[in-house]
Write a structure and sequence with these properties.
284 residues; alpha+beta; Porin; 12-stranded antiparallel beta sheet; 5 helices; 12 strands; globular
């Protein structure tokens, strides 16, 4: 595992304070607040520590307040239900005595059943595509210092866009986006941890898909945005240290909100997870 990968794993592995209570540190990745993927991943880790013999299959979360990226986050887990096949957990993320995020997660005993899936979109593979850091160095030479720090950030998850978008001067295009992602390094054979890693990574680029038809990006000073909710469904096993295609679309934007969806496929075309998110989007 690379140093970056080890650091991410450590970041998402929480300190147990007592039964059902955990604490995680926060990281500055260039945005004004705590990164939404951080609380998604850490909350899922906390919930997973209270469940045995079952795998998470879905989560539904709401972002309640902006998180302080300079302060730790405490996670309180409620063991809502343990049935024969399914278990439910409710998680609240707290900073300075106030909830900033809550999430429900459902876990299931493994079983066989009917199967079908959407086909993976036909797009170029990740080999030969530049990643976000390389694109920043090649193309985005005139960006402000603040944006430059974000684009050049040493990422624990590598992203290779199939259709790169200029952060300051985008062209209007249909609301569809594809990018390849994988975690940097080789990670332990723990399916639960790979789901935690995917929850962390799934918040990148998703809401921005709603801006594509309007020739806008979140890097422009005229846009103010924040995630409102986030839902995920885990369909099949996968590894985050192998390439996944994140295929996103945005069916609608209205009333100051944008709605985006995503499907994640293994390189072999297996649909491993689906995501949906709505966020506040305001022009100022």
């Amino acid at each position: 595992m690379t140093d970056i990968g080890h650091d991410l794993l450590k970041h998402l592995t929480l300190e147990r304070l007592e039964e059902n209570l955990y604490r995680g540190d926060s990281r500055d990745i260039g945005g004004p607040n705590v990164f939404g993927g951080q609380v998604l991943g850490q909350a899922l880790f906390a919930a997973s520590q209270t469940v045995e013999g079952r795998d998470v299959h879905s989560l539904h979360a709401y972002f309640l307040r902006p998180g302080d990226k300079n302060a730790p986050v405490v996670y309180e887990v409620e063991q809502t239900r343990d049935g024969k096949s399914y278990a439910t957990r409710r998680i609240v993320a707290i900073q300075r005595g106030k909830p900033i995020f809550n999430m429900s997660a459902s876990f299931q005993v493994r079983e066989e059943g009917i199967e079908h899936q959407f086909a993976m979109p036909v797009v170029p593979g990740p080999d030969g595509l530049p990643n976000m850091t390389e694109l920043a160095r090649q193309t985005f030479v005139e960006v402000p210092d603040k944006l430059s720090r974000f684009l050049s950030w040493q990422r624990p998850i590598e992203f290779r866009p199939v259709q790169p978008t200029h952060p300051l001067h985008p062209e209007a295009c249909p609301p569809f986006r594809n990018l390849w992602m994988r975690a940097n390094g080789v990670f332990p054979d723990d399916p639960a941890m790979h789901k935690v890693l995917l929850a962390y990574a799934s918040d990148f680029s998703l809401l921005g898909t709603a801006l594509l038809p309007h020739a806008l990006t979140f890097y422009q000073s005229t846009i103010r945005a924040a995630s409102l909710d986030h839902a995920m469904w885990f369909h099949r096993d996968f590894r985050m240290d192998e390439w996944l295609l994140y295929s996103m679309d945005s069916p609608s934007a209205s009333h100051g909100r944008g709605f985006s969806r995503g499907n994640l496929f293994s390189r072999e075309g297996k649909l491993v997870a689906s995501v949906a998110q709505e966020g506040m989007i305001r022009k100022i």
